[in-house]
Amino acid sequence: MRELLEGIRLFSKLGEEALRALEAAAEAVTFEPGDVLCREGETGDRMFLIASGEVVVLKAVGDGAPIEVTVLRRGDVAGEMGLFGERKRTATLRACTACETWVLGYDAFERLLESEPTVAKGLLSSMSRHLVRETSAAATLRAKEEGRGLRVAFFHASPYRNRLYTEINRYEYALRFFLPRLTLDTVPLASGFRVVVASANDCLDGDVVDALADLGVEMIALRCAGYNNVDLDACERRGLSVARVPAYSPYAVAEHAVALMMALNRRTHRAHVRVRDGNFSLDGLVGFDIHGKTAGIVGTGKIGVCLLSILHGFGCRLLAHSRTEKPELVDRFGVRFVPLDELLAASEIVSLHCALTPKTHHIIDADAVSKMKDGVMLINTARGGLIDTEALLDGLKSRKIGYAGLDVYEEEADYFYKDFSDSVIDDDALARLTTFGNVMVTGHQGSLTDEAQRNIAETTLENVREFELGRRGDALTNAVAAKRD
Question: Which active-site residues does the annotation give?
């Protein structure tokens, strides 16, 4: 052990007596490949000094598998905090190879300090270095990237999207895909990356933005059109550029809205389950003709316009509510632009396609529901926060709302894109929604078509390319900036 300690810069200046005391207090322990030295979350009161072999440091992030943070080798020290009493381990240490270690426990450390207080200097210096490394959590992940291009971190990644981004990575960026959502807890994964790609369900509030900026992140590339989850003022204050995907395939989302309408109307989801059980009864499956019905579209952006076109083909009477009236839609589809209250009172079908802003948050609340026609069909493929879920549940129970088709949910970030089939959904409102036979909930899959996903990936990477070429802030083609009064 003496040779090992003398070779470590932090201990090399200790005197002969201190080195001898440290050597006597430590215990030699060997580990076989796969052995766990300590586990994250468990209490521990020991420090490990690696004498030979390799020890991997694993850290749990979100619900995914533990992520390899770094590998410890001869001369590395771990678990220093355990020398100051029983502390919860912040990482798991597992032997990659046969390892020889020197282990110093809390009790031995206390006795050592009484006789050789100078030992504390070396150990505290080592601990400070360790804590700097711990702060960035996954800093060494960047060393694993084989690409030499711009480093780009994807949060809330999924296999089908990962393959697509990898396939079209024409600029040879060093892409890293992280399964967890971006939150304050998972921000350390962004260490070493200049660009972060985020989704509509990632958290980009002021605290997260500050943490990203502290790690050296310079750009947030949203792979979605909405940006209500981004604190744009914080981004401007910290100098982070933000870009989005303003349009991908509006047809995909509009067609999904129609799919929800048709399935709810003709009860195809219920009929399918019956037939699989050998039940060909038609009781309870009566629908209505969409032709001739009044459909109210809230929001006439690209998706809303696509839906108007489709429903015009069905032969619907069309109402619209939007920030600005579009005369061309009146000419093309016979749309009437009306106040929201009039749209709600006159429509058999109401479909939401507006952005989520402070003004549109809970645009469908108890008051709005009370103004709707009895038995109305309500469709939301835009943002979950447009609907007050409790008001929706009350409307369903009173039968004011006859059908509800939801591809979004205001608390979806904790559930969508994950498999809860073997566990319990502890969100009472979401669980209740899924029990209604006249409600269909899909997991935010409106844009889940080949064409839409490819458009999103292409635009996202082009946004990153502009950043790489030197564009910043408002100079980005698809920039998002804080609004000015």
Answer: 383, 412, 444
